């Protein structure tokens, strides 16, 4: 029904995450209607991204040079490393403006069912960074708070148990602005266990 | 926070219809993670579409040659023309498999507020197609059933009043599988006015 090029464009667009056949058609017609220069800007942006962007040699964050902007920033705290699954998690943490240390992007989490063991994620590279006189004294494990993320955190905590490096984990609890009534029992349970003392002695 | 190429890609993606900043980020990271060949296929599809696809000389549907597949199909009924706003409407009508005639894509509807008069949509080209010994005896106006679509239909009906060509309009009524309770009063009113006789004499 569509011409071959239009059909190819719709098929390629429909492969993108979160884009169904209807959205793909809508976007294809938008591209057809928009002026050529603007449409080619999108094509160029894709090509440029694939050609220029690779991984930082140190933390494996996305980078257009040997070291990423964070690793090459002299003002960052080099004694702490935040362990994340994907480059997008670096962006999420950077947006909080609460963290001034370095990162290490694992590129995934342990998942025995999918056959992803420690050799498939960047654990070896992490150990190399931590070895010798690295000056790193804390690793914050920021994998997602789900089954695989927790298992990976536990695995890494055990792996680093004798290294003398503090291994910490992101707090679990109620989201800010959330509602007790709608919190699932696991989250509420974690919030209880991890409660903070507001006044009074130690816990 | 992103590298320049990634930021450019996200910005370009976020310009597409129905894609917000979050989806744009998600798609950008998907493109960065997918293998180069696949990502470049999308870029190529965009370039190819803009280079190859233009308008059919007769009906102004999208086409990769002088005449579109429908206009050059010898088996189509050449006595009836379906008037639509956009090429995507051709696809919608073709999908019904109820229509075997030709099309004419107006490229918009009359909209005095936005300054779109008959000279901005392909009315002149329609009159040219209908003039002389065209063999066309019916024009079905398939503009959208909204204010601008109805006004355009009325305008065209008046324009062709003395041509001897039948001008018809898509039926308005309840959508199949719809519910009386949830139908708006305008639609229900139209369904009443346009009621079909199931048994008995003429209306």
TrEMBL record, chains A, B:
<dbReference type="Pfam" id="PF21175">
    <property type="entry name" value="RecR_C"/>
</dbReference>
<comment type="function">
    <text>May play a role in DNA repair. It seems to be involved in an RecBC-independent recombinational process of DNA repair. It may act with RecF and RecO.</text>
</comment>
<protein>
    <recommendedName>
        <fullName>Recombination protein RecR</fullName>
    </recommendedName>
</protein>
<feature type="zinc finger region" description="C4-type">
    <location>
        <begin position="56"/>
        <end position="71"/>
    </location>
</feature>
<dbReference type="InterPro" id="IPR015967">
    <property type="entry name" value="Rcmb_RecR_Znf"/>
</dbReference>
<dbReference type="GO" id="GO:0006281">
    <property type="term" value="P:DNA repair"/>
</dbReference>
<keyword id="KW-0479">Metal-binding</keyword>
<dbReference type="Pfam" id="PF02132">
    <property type="entry name" value="RecR_ZnF"/>
</dbReference>
<dbReference type="InterPro" id="IPR023627">
    <property type="entry name" value="Rcmb_RecR"/>
</dbReference>
<dbReference type="GO" id="GO:0006310">
    <property type="term" value="P:DNA recombination"/>
</dbReference>
<dbReference type="InterPro" id="IPR000093">
    <property type="entry name" value="DNA_Rcmb_RecR"/>
</dbReference>
<dbReference type="InterPro" id="IPR003583">
    <property type="entry name" value="Hlx-hairpin-Hlx_DNA-bd_motif"/>
</dbReference>
<comment type="similarity">
    <text>Belongs to the RecR family.</text>
</comment>
<dbReference type="GO" id="GO:0003677">
    <property type="term" value="F:DNA binding"/>
</dbReference>
<keyword id="KW-0233">DNA recombination</keyword>
<keyword id="KW-0227">DNA damage</keyword>
<feature type="domain" description="Toprim">
    <location>
        <begin position="79"/>
        <end position="175"/>
    </location>
</feature>
<keyword id="KW-0234">DNA repair</keyword>
<keyword id="KW-0863">Zinc-finger</keyword>
<dbReference type="InterPro" id="IPR034137">
    <property type="entry name" value="TOPRIM_RecR"/>
</dbReference>
<dbReference type="GO" id="GO:0008270">
    <property type="term" value="F:zinc ion binding"/>
</dbReference>
<dbReference type="InterPro" id="IPR006171">
    <property type="entry name" value="TOPRIM_dom"/>
</dbReference>
<dbReference type="Pfam" id="PF13662">
    <property type="entry name" value="Toprim_4"/>
</dbReference>
<dbReference type="Pfam" id="PF21176">
    <property type="entry name" value="RecR_HhH"/>
</dbReference>
<keyword id="KW-0862">Zinc</keyword>
């Amino acid at each position: 029904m569509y011409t071959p090029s239009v059909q190819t464009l719709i098929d390629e667009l429909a492969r993108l995450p979160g884009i169904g056949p209807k959205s793909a058609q809508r976007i294809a017609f938008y591209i057809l209607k928009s002026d050529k220069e603007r449409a080619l800007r999108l094509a160029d942006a894709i090509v440029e991204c694939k050609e220029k962007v690779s991984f930082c040699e140190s933390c494996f964050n996305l980078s257009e040079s040997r070291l990423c902007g964070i690793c090459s920033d002299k003002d960052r705290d080099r004694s702490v490393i935040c362990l994340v699954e994907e480059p997008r998690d670096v962006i999420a943490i950077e947006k909080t403006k609460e963290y001034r240390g370095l990162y290490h992007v694992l590129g995934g989490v342990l998942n025995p069912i999918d056959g992803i063991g420690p050799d498939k994620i960047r654990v070896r590279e992490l150990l190399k960074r931590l070895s010798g006189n690295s000056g790193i004294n804390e690793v914050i494990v920021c994998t997602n708070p789900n089954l695989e993320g927790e298992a990976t955190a536990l695995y890494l905590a055990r792996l680093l148990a004798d290294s003398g490096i503090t291994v910490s984990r992101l707090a679990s609890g109620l989201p800010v602005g959330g509602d007790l009534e709608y919190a699932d029992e696991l989250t509420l349970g974690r919030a209880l266990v991890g409660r903070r003392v507001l006044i009074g002695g130690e816990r």
